[in-house]
Specification:
Strand content: over 45%
Shape: globular
Radius of gyration: 13 Å
Distance between the termini: 40 Å
């Protein structure tokens, strides 16, 4: 049973920073790509950032490029999302997920339907 547990969300002022963490268990973490997604109530899940199994292939949504950084520590089975220069429009629940295909590094790291396990999410609120 794969489990993903996010942490690090909270309330921050516009322009501030937060670091999200996602701890994984139940799968060989270092063999699978990981992604961060966000979803507002009533809206579709939105890709934020994806990283391949060894960290040398990374993708970002245009809306976060230059502000957010995804990274992973395979020894700790954890993926991170460093979020800087936060904006009120970044307010939403953020979820991590693990990709279906081991050792995959291509653009399907941006596709939510290519992920098979999801965390419960962590709320990020950015005040203006």
């Amino acid at each position: 049973q794969v489990q993903l547990v996010e942490s690090g969300g909270g309330l921050v002022q516009a322009g501030g920073s937060l670091r999200l963490s996602c701890a994984a268990s139940g799968r060989t973490f270092g063999s699978y790509g990981m992604g961060w997604f966000r979803q507002a109530p009533g809206k579709e899940r939105e890709f934020v950032a994806g990283i391949n199994w060894n960290g040398d292939s990374i993708y970002y949504a245009d809306s976060v490029k230059g502000r957010f950084t995804i990274s992973r520590d395979n020894a700790k089975s954890t993926v991170y999302l460093q979020m800087n220069s936060l904006k009120p429009e970044d307010t939403v629940i953020y979820c991590c997920a693990t990709h279906k295909v081991p050792y995959y590094s291509g653009t399907y790291l941006k596709s939510p339907n290519r992920y098979d396990y999801w965390g419960q999410g962590t709320q990020v609120t950015v005040s203006s």
